[in-house]
């Protein structure tokens, strides 16, 4: 009982933390008072088990319903001076600070403790603070601040407490940040009910259905033993399978438990592409088009539609229009028609009428529509300009019919764009590497038209270039042979902020055209011009003074010109540019001090050019197929310790010892590798001539982080070298080996030790190689090349390979002479998701035609040569109709059933960018022996290459077999 009236204002609270073992002998004697709360040292008190707190009775009664009921009610404790409380001491101390007016910090880690305690003790103000904090943190649009494991705990607790508002906040938060959640290990700990509510939430935000599917398959894999079959189906039914990339859906058909869903996905995709399918599907169901709507919310930042041939203008409009427009029957009918048959119906006016009311998604800054052959890029640009006002990055690779002049329209419509990627396949014919017999260009009579916006006329381009400078900083035009000097001239005026340009494989532009871009775009720091006419004029432009008008004629090509563009360059890739002389290359190297990435593959690079290079920031260096010596390479490496990528294949001079007058000794390749081993940490290396076990041993400390290695002609690792490689480089994910001596035991060691291997290429190797060692599981392998290494491979071996390497997307087999037509079915059923197949000299694979390979319907690259004379005359057209993503086809007339192939003049309605038809002639034995039948073997004669661009069809006849 209270001893006096003054003492009745105070009460002692004996606090006991039941989960902590006391570490102090006098733990029970510690008494602290709320009158001195400002002096409490909380960290020192958290580890105690017992603490007695002297507090104002009335303050507790006013602030807490728990103490109000305990101290004011009819309980026997009401009149006591001392009561006991068992609770988390850390929370109790913070609770008293909060009651006495001191703020507490609610975080992702402390929220649940505060909320649970506030509920128990009935502290309404703390409950309000918890609710405010959770509401605010779940509304944040930037990087999530609520950790996933905390989110799960909060949802579980609040669900058990029958709190309706907090679980809804958790569900909304998870839906908006689904892509973030998938990256956490705790993702698989999400309860089924929470995940299902999240998937049905209207604010579910993902980059694409592919990313959503990957996340759900990951969750199902971690919970398969804890949920029912019906639960699995319920989860998967939330995916919009009609919007999956074709290559992704075909690859997932091998998921035995869920293959039915992906089979239906492929059927739906083909229904939308308007290609023949094995059974009829009503893709629109009963008027519900929700499964055809691309997921877009106010929180969407990235939209990835790449690899979806079913995506057309109708799908975009359907996704960008308000849902109320579903009731506009005439508009809905028009959109459905466009989605079913590939072109808008005649009633374009209705769709044009809908464009002004498209929804706006202000957070979208990146869109990827690469490899969407059915989507008219010009029309897509019109939609993007209206719905994505903050668009900064547009990836639109492999849109063959997009003419360069439309780029000006794109810049005009999306003025905030910083990065544009318009890559297409590089033409197989490179003039510097091919012997051209004849070439013919036929202008296309029919070109895709722009539906809703007129492209500026040539007369207005100069006005646009002066009045509409763009923000474009990065422009990729790789492979676009339709780009001309005139296009570059206009682009250089429009893209005044350009800092990165990729013209790789743009064979129609001249050296002078590239020079104009260099002179006009003074902010350039990255230039990729491999396989172009980049030459003397471009070098002069790089080395000229930046200020002034006539910089090309007053170029300073000697000395260290810090005012030149070359001095600012960070990336220069000019592989295959044979128009640059040794002297010009030396002058250029003397002015490129800031380069971090340099590719000089296949150029006139000699030692003097490397010795003139004074930079110290190189991270990547490619000197493949040049005349550089070991001493010159060591000189550069010594000054660039940050080098992580070195490609030096086909450099014969690296293996030749050289006398160094400056140090008075004979400098060898071994000395170079010792220097590399001491100063570098490589992630990617390609070597050849002179590389051996000794070289690898010298490099072993520099290869601990190695991820990719290529050993080419002239290298000799041997058994010990390959074993050392597997032991030294556990992170390797790509191994490419040419002309090495291999045995089964070596292959076994490599496969067993390299568990991260994603790419394996064994080409033209020697030794006793059977197929027995490929019976080890390689679940991560994506690319496999076996060229002239397993000649005795059988169909049974191929079956074993499909079982051990289930994730392959690219397969190349050369010289497997025992394979036959049944191999097609084994390949297509074992790897339905293949995007590249190369089969050459593989027995009789095509002797009975090509039918089963069509089941690999996502193929983009197909090579069939010398596999049996059974390929139909209409194969190219038939394959393009069966495989909507097919861009590259390579055949041989030896395999043509009727001696020839039909080649389309135009490629409207498919993705073809190039077709190569090789021709052979019989080679007779020169010995004229009457009793010996002359042996006929095919000998290559010429290759016909047909290439399509946005303007024309180009037929080129070359001597090389390409």
Automatic annotation (TrEMBL):
Pfam families: BACK (PF07707), BTB (PF00651). Pathway: Protein modification; protein ubiquitination. CDD domains: BTB_POZ_ZBTB_KLHL-like. PROSITE patterns: BTB (PS50097). One of its GO terms (cellular component) is SCF ubiquitin ligase complex. GO terms for biological process: SCF-dependent proteasomal ubiquitin-dependent protein catabolic process. Residues 28-108 form the BTB domain. PANTHER family: BTB_POZ DOMAIN-CONTAINING PROTEIN FBL11 (PTHR13318:SF71), PARTNER OF PAIRED, ISOFORM B-RELATED (PTHR13318). May act as a substrate-specific adapter of an E3 ubiquitin-protein ligase complex (CUL3-RBX1-BTB) which mediates the ubiquitination and subsequent proteasomal degradation of target proteins. This is BTB/POZ domain-containing protein FBL11. It comes from Heracleum sosnowskyi.
């Amino acid at each position: 009982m209270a001893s006096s009236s003054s003492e009745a204002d105070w009460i002692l609270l004996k606090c006991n933390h039941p989960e902590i073992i006391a570490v102090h002998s006098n733990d029970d004697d510690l008494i602290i008072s709320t009158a001195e709360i400002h002096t409490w040292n909380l960290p020192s008190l958290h580890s105690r088990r017992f603490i007695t707190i002297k507090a104002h009775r009335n303050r507790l009664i006013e602030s807490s319903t728990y103490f109000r009921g305990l101290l004011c009610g009819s309980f026997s404790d009401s009149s006591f001076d001392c009561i006991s409380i068992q609770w988390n001491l850390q929370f109790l101390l913070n609770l008293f600070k909060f009651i006495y007016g001191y703020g507490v910090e609610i975080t992702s880690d402390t929220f649940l403790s505060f909320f649970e305690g506030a509920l128990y003790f009935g502290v309404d103000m703390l409950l309000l603070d918890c609710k405010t904090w959770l509401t605010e943190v779940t509304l944040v649009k930037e990087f999530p601040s609520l950790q996933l494991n905390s989110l799960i705990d909060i949802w579980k607790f609040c669900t058990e407490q029958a709190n309706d508002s907090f679980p809804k906040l958790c569900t909304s938060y998870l839906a908006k940040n689904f892509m973030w959640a998938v990256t956490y290990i705790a993702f698989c700990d999400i309860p089924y009910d929470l995940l299902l509510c999240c998937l049905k939430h209207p604010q579910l935000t993902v980059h694409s259905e592919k990313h959503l599917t990957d996340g759900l398959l990951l969750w199902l894999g971690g919970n398969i033993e804890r949920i029912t079959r019906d639960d699995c189906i319920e989860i998967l039914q939330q995916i919009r399978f009609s919007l999956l990339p074709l290559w992704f859906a075909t690859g997932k058909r091998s998921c035995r438990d869920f293959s039915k869903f992906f089979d239906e996905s492929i059927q739906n995709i083909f229904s939308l592409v308007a290609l023949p399918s094995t059974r009829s599907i009503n893709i629109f169901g009963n008027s519900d088009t929700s499964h055809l709507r691309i997921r877009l919310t106010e929180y969407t930042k990235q939209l990835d539609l790449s690899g979806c041939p079913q995506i057309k203008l109708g799908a975009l409009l359907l996704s960008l229009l308000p849902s109320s427009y579903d009731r506009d029957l005439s508009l809905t009918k028009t959109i459905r028609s466009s989605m079913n048959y590939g072109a808008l119906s005649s009633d374009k006016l209705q769709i044009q009428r809908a464009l002004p009311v498209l929804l706006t998604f202000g957070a979208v800054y990146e869109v990827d529509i690469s490899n969407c052959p059915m989507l008219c890029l010009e029309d897509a640009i019109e939609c993007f300009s209206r719905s994505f006002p903050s668009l900064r990055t547009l990836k639109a690779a492999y849109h063959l019919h997009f003419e360069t002049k439309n780029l000006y329209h794109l810049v005009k419509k999306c003025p905030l764009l910083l990065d544009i990627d318009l890559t297409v396949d590089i033409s197989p014919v490179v003039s510097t590497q091919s012997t051209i017999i004849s070439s013919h260009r036929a202008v296309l009579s029919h070109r895709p038209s722009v539906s809703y916006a007129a492209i500026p006329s040539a007369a207005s381009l100069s006005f646009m270039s002066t009045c509409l400078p763009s923000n474009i900083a990065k422009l990729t035009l790789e492979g676009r042979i339709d780009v001309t000097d005139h296009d570059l001239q206009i682009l250089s005026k429009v893209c005044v902020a350009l800092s990165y340009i990729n013209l790789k494989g743009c064979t129609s532009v001249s050296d002078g055209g590239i020079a104009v871009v260099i002179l006009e775009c003074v902010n350039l720091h990255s230039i990729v011009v491999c396989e172009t006419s980049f030459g003397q004029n471009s070098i002069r432009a790089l080395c000229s003074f930046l200020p002034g008008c006539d910089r090309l004629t007053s170029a300073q090509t000697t000395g260290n010109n810090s005012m030149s563009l070359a001095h600012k360059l960070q990336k220069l890739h000019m592989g295959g540019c044979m128009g640059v002389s040794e002297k010009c290359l030396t002058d250029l190297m003397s002015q490129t001090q800031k380069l971090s990435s340099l590719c000089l593959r296949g150029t006139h690079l000699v030692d003097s050019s490397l010795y003139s290079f004074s930079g110290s920031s190189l991270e990547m260096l490619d000197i493949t197929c040049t005349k550089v010596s070991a001493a010159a390479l060591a000189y550069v490496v010594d000054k660039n310790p940050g080098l992580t990528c070195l490609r030096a294949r086909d450099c014969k001079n690296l293996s030749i010892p050289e006398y160094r007058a400056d140090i008075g000794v004979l400098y060898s390749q071994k000395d170079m590798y010792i220097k590399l081993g001491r100063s570098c940490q490589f992630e990617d290396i390609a070597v050849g001539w002179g590389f051996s076990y000794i070289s690898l041993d010298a490099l072993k400390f520099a290869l601990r982080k190695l991820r990719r290695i290529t050993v080419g002609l002239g290298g000799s690792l041997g058994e010990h070298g390959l074993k050392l490689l597997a032991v030294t480089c556990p992170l390797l994910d790509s191994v490419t080996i040419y002309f090495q001596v291999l045995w089964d035991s070596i292959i076994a060691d490599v496969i067993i030790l390299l568990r991260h291997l994603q790419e394996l290429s064994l080409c033209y190797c020697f030794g006793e190689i059977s197929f027995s060692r490929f019976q080890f599981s390689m679940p991560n392998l994506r690319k496999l090349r076996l060229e002239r290494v397993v000649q005795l491979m059988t169909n049974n071996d191929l079956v074993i390979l499909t079982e051990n390497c289930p994730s392959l997307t690219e397969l190349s087999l050369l010289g497997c002479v025992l394979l036959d037509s049944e191999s097609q079915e084994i390949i297509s059923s074992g790897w339905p998701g293949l995007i590249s197949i190369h089969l050459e000299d593989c027995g009789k694979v095509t002797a009975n035609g090509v039918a089963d390979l069509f089941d690999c319907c996502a193929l983009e690259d197909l090579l069939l040569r010398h596999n049996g004379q059974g390929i139909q005359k209409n194969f190219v057209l038939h394959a393009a109709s069966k495989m909507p993503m097919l861009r590259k086809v390579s055949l041989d007339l030896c395999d043509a059933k009727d001696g020839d192939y039909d080649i389309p003049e135009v490629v409207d309605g498919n993705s073809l960018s190039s077709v190569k038809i090789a021709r052979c002639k019989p080679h007779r034995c020169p010995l004229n022996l009457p009793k010996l039948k002359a042996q006929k073997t095919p000998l290559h004669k010429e290759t016909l290459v047909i290439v399509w661009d946005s303007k024309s069809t180009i037929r080129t006849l070359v001597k090389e077999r390409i």
